Amino acid sequence: MSQGRDGVITVISPHTEQPIAEVPAATAAEVQAAVAAARQAIDDGPWPRLDPAERIAALRRLAARYAERGGELAELISRQIGAPISFAQRAQVGLPTMMMGAFCDIAESFAWQENRPGFFGAEVQVRKEAVGVVAAVVPWNMPQFLIITKLVPALLAGCAVIVKPAPESPLDALLLKEMLDELDLPSGVVSVLPGGTEVGAALVGHPGVDKVSFTGSTAAGKAVAAACAANLTTVSLELGGKSAAVVLDDADPAAVAAAVRSASLSNSGQICNALTRILVPQHRQSDFVDALAAELSTIAVGDPADPATQMGPLVTARQQQRVRDYIHSGVSEGARLVTGGAEQPDGLDTGWYVRPTLFADANNAMRIAREEIFGPVLTVIGYGDQADAVAIANDSDYGLAGSVFTADTERGLAVAAQVRTGTFGVNQGYTMDPVAPFGGVKDSGYGRELGREGLDGYLQTKSVAVAAG
């Protein structure tokens, strides 16, 4: 992606390194107009005042249209960010399609009002009302999933939403806007503003915005939180991660390797909840390292348009260089490079590719163990006993996800209770189940998406006391 001085975003294929589209970046005037229209929709329009059933019906119509055009969406996402077409179909589009139906189901059973007998004799009505104008700022790695998990609950809540897609991935967001326009929603209820950091900064710092929902890096999240604080704007932050897979001594190496591959290397490792620190018992370290190396050796790297491809390129040349720098850092700090490396994969002369890479004999003080790489790099760290494993898992600035692998589920649940993180899996990577709230602690952010909690994040609570008699 590049943005020229004329305000045009050039979308570049990570596979061919050639331009595939140009999109106008939103101007400062367009940001102001979108906020004003959203403000009008909230303050005077019908959308937040509809019965929730009417909003649910509208979103179910969107879900049906979305499913019809899913193939187009998957192709756009694959071309923009280099995701293998099979992964784009299954996860980048299939998962959001499923999420929309699940969110509507949650909204149908949601307690929009609760009546309580007041302590002083009055009846107390506790109402849930739309928080107002929402700025949804999303990154490029899972563009539709991240838009849908913000947009749909916000719309179900009665909010007006301004979506700011990343400049690397504006095309799918604009196609989604076409589908939304077909719903004939009230004016100002949804806007899409492609652009870079300047558009995002204008949105999150705007006094007309009531809530910001941001997904991105921890550094950017801190800047967003500071901008929101100036206006006391509500904000939720889903940020980076450096999640640990705690492998107990009774786990099966082949099963662990298959699960870690799925949970860590999908989308070329460009997923925030990837399991990138693999904690294994010292006395069985070679068993797990060998199994992981064998698993990584089977990954088909290549053209994302090929259905046989299992791993595509990274999203930009900048991201490719960043990941290669981390690989060099791991070697220089003394970790053992088991497989992979910083060289271009065989047979790929162009494209921003990185080999699936595995380090062993690492420790938790190394950069490859402490910093989010956001690429296909796994780091194996040995531990002494179970308490040591938990301590290493918790020795991180992040707390987004994590997993434990064991033949004893109860033992795994005991570990889950001790690891400080927002989400966790037992004998699997954390799955984005629509009924389960998702989010992090520490430098991984705050607030929750998905589940009833995700819907509630776009609502504010009002208490109304009605005098007896």
TrEMBL record:
Q: Which keywords does the record carry?
A: Oxidoreductase
Q: Which residues form the Aldehyde dehydrogenase domain?
A: 7-464
For this protein, the record's InterPro entries field holds: Ald_DH/histidinol_DH (IPR016161), Ald_DH_C (IPR016163), Ald_DH_CS_CYS (IPR016160), Ald_DH_CS_GLU (IPR029510), Ald_DH_N (IPR016162), Aldehyde_DH_dom (IPR015590)
Specify the protein name.
aldehyde dehydrogenase (NAD(+))
What chemistry does it catalyse, as a reaction equation? Answer: an aldehyde + NAD(+) + H2O = a carboxylate + NADH + 2 H(+)
Report the active site residues: E238
The entry's family comment says: Belongs to the aldehyde dehydrogenase family.
Which Gene3D superfamilies does this chain map to?
Aldehyde Dehydrogenase, Chain A, domain 1, Aldehyde Dehydrogenase, Chain A, domain 2
What Enzyme Commission number(s) appear in the record? 1.2.1.3
Asked whether the keyword DNA damage is assigned, the reply is no
Which CDD domains does this entry report, sorted A to Z? ALDH_AldA-Rv0768 (cd07139)
Q: Which domain of life is it from?
A: Bacteria
Species: [Mycobacterium] wendilense
Q: Name one Pfam family in it.
A: Aldedh
